[in-house]
Each structure stands twice: as C-alpha cells, then as structure tokens.
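Subject: design request, 179 residues
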C-alpha cells in the first residue's frame, strides 16, 4: 500500500519508491488517494489487525481507505484517536506474543487492554518507539528501565544510537525499511 503522507514535504517519498515496489509486486500495489492521508508512523500491525492512528498526519479518509484495502485482502483495521503525540508509534510498539510497550496516553486506551501492556515511564517514553524483528527488539540506546522490562519478557535487545534522529522527532521505526 503506497501511502499519501499528511506532510506535503514528505509526499515525494512515495513517488521515489513506487516504481521499485511495483516491480516486486506487479498488479498488487494499492494507493491512498486524496483527500486521504496516511503516514506509516500511524499504522501498527497486531496479527492480522491493523491499528491506524488518527493524527495531524493521518485523517479519517485515509484511515477509511486503508481499512477498505486491508479488508479486500482478508485483514482488518480500526482507528485510534491520538490526543498528544505526532504518530501512533510515537508512544507504543507491538513486540509480538501479545506484548505491547506503551507510554503516556496509550497505557489506558481501551483498544489495547486485551494485550499485555508494558508500561514505559514518562521520562523514557521515547523508548516506546522500537521494533521487533526475529525475536529481537531494536530500541534506542540510553533507556535502562525500558530495556530491562523488554529483556524480562525474554527478548534479546539491540540498542542503537538515535540521538540525531530524535532531534527531528524521529525514532527507531522511522529509520526502518523492512522489505
């Protein structure tokens, strides 16, 4: 699914990658179209269900289009309204095996209460943006409480320096391209 970023300055990103994606997935590429906007930072996969954050960058039209595309392929989606953060994955990360790292407004969201919520303290909330890959969790360096909580669940942790990305509100999921 080729998204349509809410920030106009990011819309060129989809044009750059579209040709490559279409080459690997001929006749299978779907697109979000105007007036819809969706940014990947607002999409979190939990099994066959996708949570889509309604934010300053992802609107209802984009979320509706995304859900319609998912349903076309036997998947499902639902929206989560954001109140304080830029993107859905700013404050949470699904680590597989029903484990959800959550900070701030996401700790008490009804949509996630069926999961094992691992509460991240407010002063380490930046560490909630991490990714699970092959039973490992890649997380920003320098957050010992969060690291200990993840390791206590049995995951191997890989810490990376994200200090430069943090200056522009970027996190681990922003730096990842999984293909």
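Subject: RE: design request

Done. Sequence follows.
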């Amino acid at each position: 699914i080729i998204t349509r970023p809410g920030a106009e300055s990011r819309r060129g990103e989809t044009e750059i990658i579209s040709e490559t994606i279409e080459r690997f997935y001929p006749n299978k590429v779907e697109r979000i179209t105007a007036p819809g906007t969706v940014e990947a930072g607002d999409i979190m996969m939990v099994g066959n269900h996708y949570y889509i954050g309604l934010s300053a960058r992802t609107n209802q039209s984009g979320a509706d289009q995304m859900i319609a595309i998912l349903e076309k392929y036997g998947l499902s989606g639902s929206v989560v309204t954001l109140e304080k953060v830029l993107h859905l994955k700013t404050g949470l990360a699904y680590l597989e095996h029903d484990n959800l790292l959550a900070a701030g407004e996401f700790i008490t969201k009804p949509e996630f209460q069926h999961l094992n919520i691992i509460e991240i303290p407010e002063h380490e909330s930046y560490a909630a943006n991490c990714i699970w890959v092959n039973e490992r969790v890649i997380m920003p360096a320098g957050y010992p409480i969060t690291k200990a909580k993840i390791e206590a669940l049995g995951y191997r942790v890989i810490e990376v320096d994200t200090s430069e990305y943090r200056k522009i509100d970027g996190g681990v999921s922003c730096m990842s391209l999984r293909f």
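Strands lie at 43-46, 49-54, 76-81, 92-94, 99-102, 116-119, 131-133, 136-140, 156-160.
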